[in-house]
Amino acid sequence: MQFTAEQLKVMDSIIARYPRSRSAIMPLLHYVQAIDGYVTPRGIEVIAGKLDLATAEVTAVSTFYTQYRSEPAGEYHVGVCINTLCAVMGGDAIYESVSEHLGIENHETTKDGKVSLERIECNAACDYAPVVMVNWEFYDNQTPQSVKDLVDAARAGNPPAPTRGPNKLRTWKENSEVLAGISDGLYNEGVSAGEASLRGLKISKGEK
Amino acid sequence: MTKLTPVLSANWDEKDSFTIAGYQRAGGYKALTKALAMEPDAVIQLVKDSGLRGRGGAGFPTGSKWGFIPQGDNKEHYLVVNADESEPGTCKDMPLLMANPHVLIEGMIIASYAIRANYAFVYIRGEVAHVVRRVQQAIEDAYKAGFLGKNIGGKGFDLELVLHVGAGAYICGEETALLDSLEGFRGQPRLRPPFPAIAGLYAKPTVVNNVESIASVPAIIQNGVEWFQAMGTEKSKGFTLYSLSGHVKNPGQFEAPLGITLREILELAGGVREGHQLKFWTPGGSSTPMFTAEHLDVPLDYEGVSAAGSMLGTKALQIFDETTCVVRAALRWTEFYKHESCGKCTPCREGTWWLVQMLQDLEDGKGTEEDLAKLLDLCDNIAGRSFCALADGAVAPIISSLKYFRSEYLEHQKNGGCPFDPVASTNFAAVKS
Q1: What is the pLDDT of residues B305-337, one digit of tens each?
Q2: Structurally, how many domains does chain B consist of?
Q3: Cα–Cα distances in Å, from A148 out to A54, A142, A171, A192?
Q4: What is the C-alpha to C-alpha distance for residues B247 and B250, in angstroms, rounded to an integer?
Q5: Is residue B32 domain-shared with residue B105, that is, in the same domain?
Q6: A127–B164: do the CB atoms touch at under 8 Å?
Q7: Pick from B91, B129, B431: which is nearest to A127 by CB?
Q8: In sequence order, which ranges of B79-128 are alpha helices (DSSP H)?
């Protein structure tokens, strides 16, 4: 199957952002994931063609970065932070419990294609530990039970909203498009800052 | 008692702080007008005079970095902002960009004007969709308002600003790896010299700055050098974001003058969690050697932390109480460095794998006292023997934990395994049946 004319046009617009075309390789890979759900052989080929590179050069870049997948992600990609601080605060327990609950291990996807699981490294939200990311949206201060509930609701098509993010959780493919730099217009939704982010500010204002 | 000084975070409690209207209501983009009325060299001089130092870890003077760009060389110049925030414990730039992306954009326009760059990039880590949305929109709105594009402010200055989203590689926070990544290659560090100021992005003169460093510039332009220097210590001027996390009552962001102590921040945060005591902490992320309760009064500025044997780093204060096994912590951080080693340099690529195996044995109670000497010997053969600082960071938790908790390593052997209950250190320990 070929990419549509419209998709090819989007790819050209991504390339046009940069003074040199090769710089577009990463957003193009995100965009391929937005269409195909992972980095497909046809995606590698189209990028190589557009950037005048060998497919091996594109593959070499794609395989270096953890977020580019060689197999389809679930509609909801769940990342449990297991770096030291989150792990100690409960991330290890969360990972074990949700992995057992779903019957899948790291980098695997449930048979219905709904949920995939990943052990992730520090996601820059340590003041909200333990942190879970779904489709790279923040779910703060999680527990084993809250994450089991989260994945059950996601499989039923009704995932809870992220703690700091849009009002409704978007799918893995939809969010991959955001990472490719294509706006979905949802920037206005969600809080400016979470409670922990405001801690010092509130104390300095005499609020608690 | 040191007082908090919210500057970057001052408007985060406004519902629309992330919009251009919200930012301008709080005085945003006034510094840009002021800067554009100055000569570019005068802007560089002002930032030099302020004493602002890099907030991404190394603490290099920001104005000097800008001054290294050769002027009149007929080459393109580039500004690249490092928003790849991935150092374990570090969580300041993401909330900053989520709540106040325009302060970075205003800082970038001023910096680009100063170094005479017509192209600027924000390299943001890929695992933060909502932060990407906010920054993307902020760039779009800045274009619409005429702060970006052609002939900015009618001063004949042109600037294109591009958001570039990473894809999950810690190493891309290292500035030369970031540049390789931005050029469309695997993100692996480059040998220096040449430094980016001479041959950076596309081999052209380039300034690479951390988000917080650039975001601090508008306030300095607006309020002046004296205002900025009134905060901080002799060689560490100004305000900065300290990120408190872990076993504390009230974790979060605390914007304070450089030189505040952990004791003071903990007091503001309500202390270590109820019924527990501080065991160890990092002053600036996992790559900075850990401290203990004896370091509560170390001034958290570049010199103070360095004199006490660590580094200020990213001011990521990760707090661990007495329920935490230090061997488990060191092992997990080492697994991180092993996973994130880019593979370019043998001591780091192979060494981190060996470190993990030795630490796993020690955690499992299968290590011996001789292994501790071997572990340190291995660290000696990894640190300082690679292109970049990842390897140095990798050995920091090991060497420092052995310095303060050697006996705990040995207890694992006596006990035939880890003597700690992992449930006790979770934050849902009390609710777990």
Answers
A1: 999 999 999 999 999 999 999 999 999 999 999
A2: 3
A3: 43, 10, 18, 27
A4: 9
A5: yes
A6: no
A7: B91
A8: 93-99, 101-115
- Bridge partners of B282, per DSSP, are B318
DSSP letters, A68-134, are: S-SSPPPSEEEEEE-SHHHIIIIIHHHHHHHHHHHT--TT-B-TTSSEEEEEE---S-GGG-S-EEE
Of A18, A27, A127, the CB nearest to B245: A127
Note whether B195 and B256 are same-domain residues: no
Q: Which of A30, A68, A89 would you mutate first to test chain B, the one with the most B CBs within 10 A?
A: A89
Q: Return the structure tokens found at A16.
A: 């046009």
Q: Are A14 and A27 in contact (CB under 8 A)?
A: yes
Nearest CA in chain B to A171: B129
Same domain, B377 and B417: yes
d(CA B190, CA B177): 7
**In terms of domains, do B261 and B317 share one?**
yes
* CATH number of the domain bearing residue B253: 3.10.20.600
| Token pair recorded at residue A181 | 């730099």
Contact list in B for residue A196 (CB cut-off 8 A) is 250-253
Q: Which alpha helices (H) appear in B253-345, and where do they start and end?
A: 262-268, 302-307, 326-340
Nearest residue of chain A to residue B119 (CA atoms) = A19
- List pLDDT tens digits, range A146-190: 999 999 999 999 999 999 999 999 999 999 999 999 999 999 999
Domain that holds residue B157: 20-229
How high is the ipTM of this complex? 0.98
